[in-house]
Amino acid sequence: MKIYDELVARGLIAQVTDEKEIRELVDNGKAVFYIGFDPTADSLHVGHFMALCLMKRLQMAGNRPIALLGGGTGMIGDPSGRSDMRQMMTPETIQHNCDCFKRQMSRFIDFSDDKALMVNNAEWLMDLNYIEFIREIGPHFSVNQMLRAECYKQRMEKGLSFLEFNYMLMQSYDFYELFQRYNCNMQFGGDDQWSNMLGGTDLIRRKLHKDAYAMTINLLLNSEGKKMGKTQSGAVWLDPDKTTPFEFYQYWRNIGDADVLKCLRMLTFLPIEQIDEMDQWEGSQLNQAKEILAYELTGLVHGEEEAKKAEAGAKALFTGGGDAAHMPTTELAEEDFEEGAIDLITLLVKAELAGTRSEARRSIEQGGVSIDGEKIGDIRYQVKKESIGTDGILLKRGKKNFKKICVQ
């Protein structure tokens, strides 16, 4: 199966501008394509993960990826998928975030020997002369068409700032610059970026009278797109200091039954034929499919060794087997105890299983807290230091949030 047909079989392609030409380019390793990453945080998250997997997949087929860091566009902020304006970041913060992105991307993309490029659009955007830019680029954009774009529609009711309104022009100009500098002939992105991507292809065709193409990929978990990469405690990051390999594993292990095969197709590098055989799986077999998904993706992001540890920790927690040493752990110091004990509410907050004391109190009252499998409903419950012992205890809130509690 050629790479374009594989992308279709994996459910990755949402829209393309010129299917015949795009198929020809990617199947023959002639695509020089870019995907943009605005540095809105100091770590990539699972929302970026799909794009990285696509870049890796296409690079393996001989195509050349360009990872575009949005050092310039990050100064404005993409309005797509937003109900309000993004918080403005300082240039120092943006640069720090770009540096963090570079380190993480290198786990997925081979940048050696010019097999891929990493470029920052601050190179051309930060020094633009506004009058020259508007005269050169502005005539090629219809305000009427821009206002019909999906990325702006949802912002119109609450108010769209002129700052954000410029974003489509900035992204389009990125493609224009990459085409001229690096012969970049294709732009990839999520299907929520379609309007912005068309702006770039049209700009190249109108100004340079040359062909450029755009392809959007289906957003993962379309039925729950806004929840992608979110857990009770926040976003799922690729940085192990923000989301541990065990927590990353558990995120994918707990994915919904309806989404597990979709994720296996879109994100893993398992043969499509092997995944297709799982279509008939149900019941406990679906749990096995989730374990395969979690193991494969944890291995991709954190390495094989960390995937094995996470798998062992999960088995220790849920099946009574495996190695409990690799569970997420909170260590208590001597000063955390008062007269040899710590109250359960304080412990839940300390273990980051509850954000506030009132949240912890509600969970206890509602019967959602247990220690070593025993439910605790008393908000005044005290956990004695001696009861934690040398092996620790398992503190659990709800069905999927837990920590091993130990004493230093």
Q: Given the helix and strand composition, which structural class is it? A: alpha/beta
How would you name the oligomeric state of the polypeptide chains in this document? single chain
Number of helices: 19
Q: What is CATH's topology name of the largest domain? A: Rossmann fold
| Number of E strands | 15
The percent range for strand residues is 5-15%
User: Regarding CATH, which class of the largest domain?
Assistant: Alpha Beta
User: Separation of termini?
Assistant: 55 Å
In round numbers, the mean pLDDT is 88
As residue ranges, the low-confidence spans are: 81-85, 221-228
Give a description of the structure.
- A hairpin with a 3-residue loop joins strand 14 (about 395) and strand 15 (about 400-405).
- The chain is of the alpha/beta class and about 400 residues long.
- Helix 12 crosses helix 16 and helix 15 packs antiparallel against helix 16 (about 305-320).
- The chain has 19 helices and 15 strands.
- The chain folds into three domains: about 5-220, 3-Layer(aba) Sandwich (Rossmann fold), CATH 3.40.50.620; about 245-325, Tyrosyl-Transfer RNA Synthetase; about 330-405, Structural Genomics Hypothetical 15.5 Kd Protein In mrcA-pckA Intergenic Region, Chain A, CATH 3.10.290.
- Strands 1-6-5-2-3-4 form a six-stranded mixed sheet, with helices on both faces. Strands 9-15-14-11-12 form a five-stranded mixed sheet. The chain has a two-stranded antiparallel sheet with strand order 7-8.
